[in-house]
């Protein structure tokens, strides 16, 4: 259902509030630069610090500004199943193509609890679901058997997975358990190339916020089986992938965007603080290496 370079968009802030003007410019720039879809209100979008009203407004603005040019995968995750359903219902009415639903964080549900959580969303909401597995943040891992069981149970509702487990063997496990056509997206920029080689369709990317054209070109090279070009682009992007996590995310990527565009501020919300001097140096060096500044 999805493929290519898909940025997990930052949520710009100005004077403590959602900077709608900057966000609309960011959406336009991303589409112009070749991004294949957009993800508002994911981890990089600081969804966990947004009120429900802000969360819904960010989704709404993204869909309005995209205007059908690319699909929008709205971040709908929550550690409260009913609140996730609320986000899903809103995103569906707003015109999202799918909802990105992270494993419930903090609660630490069992695998049976995960199946119950995602089953509830699949059965009560009309929006297609992209599973989001990021155990480094949620503690809870959506295990392979759970993913297979959910997709087999709801093949028309659970349409893809963003996997940020760092375990590349899962691509083959999912292909064996579900089928080769199931859409798998990397959640780790630095693993995008090997994830694609194993059968992935692209990435929901942090780096694509600041390097959308390079990331789109990189994916297109992979899709065309131009491995030499893909490796060269990967080498160009690789320091940037790591620099994006040289401090608590999304502080480094917001700083990077502020270096590339004068209409985005590096402001983040507590408990995240702005990137440290050391992180900023790493970002600057990576941006220079990639030829972006």
Task: Lay out the secondary structure.
Layout: E1 4-7, E2 13-14, E3 17-18, H1 20-32, H2 52-66, E4 73-75, H3 81-94, E5 98-102, H4 111-124, E6 129-133, H5 135-138, H6 144-153, E7 158-163, H7 169-177, E8 183-186, H8 192-198, E9 202-205, H9 212-223, H10 227-243, H11 251-260, H12 277-289
Short description:
This protein is α/β, with parallel strands linked by helices and 293 residues long. Helices cover 47% and strands 12% of the residues.
Supply the helix-strand structural class.
alpha/beta
Q: What fraction, in percent, of the residue positions are helical?
A: 40-55%
By DSSP (H or I, 4+ residues per run), the number of helices equals: 12
**Integer average pLDDT:** 97
Output the radius of gyration.
18 Å
Terminal Cα span: 34 Å
Order of helices and strands: EEEHHEHEHEHHEHEHEHHHH
Name the shape in a single word: globular
Largest sheet: 7 strands, parallel
Beta-strand residue fraction: 5-15%
Question: pLDDT under 50 segments (min length 5)?
Answer: none
Biggest β-sheet: strands ordered side by side in the sheet:
1-9-8-7-6-5-4
Total strands: the figure is 9
């Amino acid at each position: 259902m999805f493929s290519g370079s898909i940025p997990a968009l930052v949520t710009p802030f100005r004077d403590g509030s959602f900077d709608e003007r900057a966000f609309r410019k960011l959406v336009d720039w991303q589409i112009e630069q070749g991004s294949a879809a957009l993800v508002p209100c994911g981890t990089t979008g600081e969804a966990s610090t947004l009120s429900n009203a802000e969360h819904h407004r960010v989704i709404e603005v993204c869909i309005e500004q995209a205007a059908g040019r690319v699909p929008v995968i709205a971040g709908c995750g929550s550690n409260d199943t009913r609140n996730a359903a609320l986000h899903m219902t809103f995103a569906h009415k707003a015109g999202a193509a799918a909802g990105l639903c992270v494993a419930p964080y903090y609660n630490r549900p069992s695998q049976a609890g995960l199946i119950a959580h995602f089953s509830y969303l699949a059965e009560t909401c009309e929006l297609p679901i992209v599973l989001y597995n990021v155990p480094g943040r949620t503690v809870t891992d959506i295990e392979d058997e759970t993913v297979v069981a959910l997709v087999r149970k709801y093949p028309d509702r659970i349409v893809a997975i963003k996997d940020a487990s760092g375990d590349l063997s899962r691509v083959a496990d999912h292909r064996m358990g579900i089928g080769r056509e199931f859409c798998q997206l990397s959640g780790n920029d630095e693993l995008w190339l090997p994830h694609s080689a194993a059968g992935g369709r692209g990435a929901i990317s942090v780096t694509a916020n600041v390097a959308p054209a390079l990331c789109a070109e990189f994916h297109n090279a992979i899709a065309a089986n131009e491995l030499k070009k893909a490796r060269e682009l990967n080498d160009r992007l690789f320091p940037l992938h790591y620099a994006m996590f040289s401090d608590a995310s999304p502080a480094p990527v917001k700083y990077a965007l502020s270096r590339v565009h004068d209409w985005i501020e590096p402001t983040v919300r507590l408990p995240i603080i702005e990137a440290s001097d050391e992180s900023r140096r790493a970002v600057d060096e990576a941006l220079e290496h990639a030829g972006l500044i």
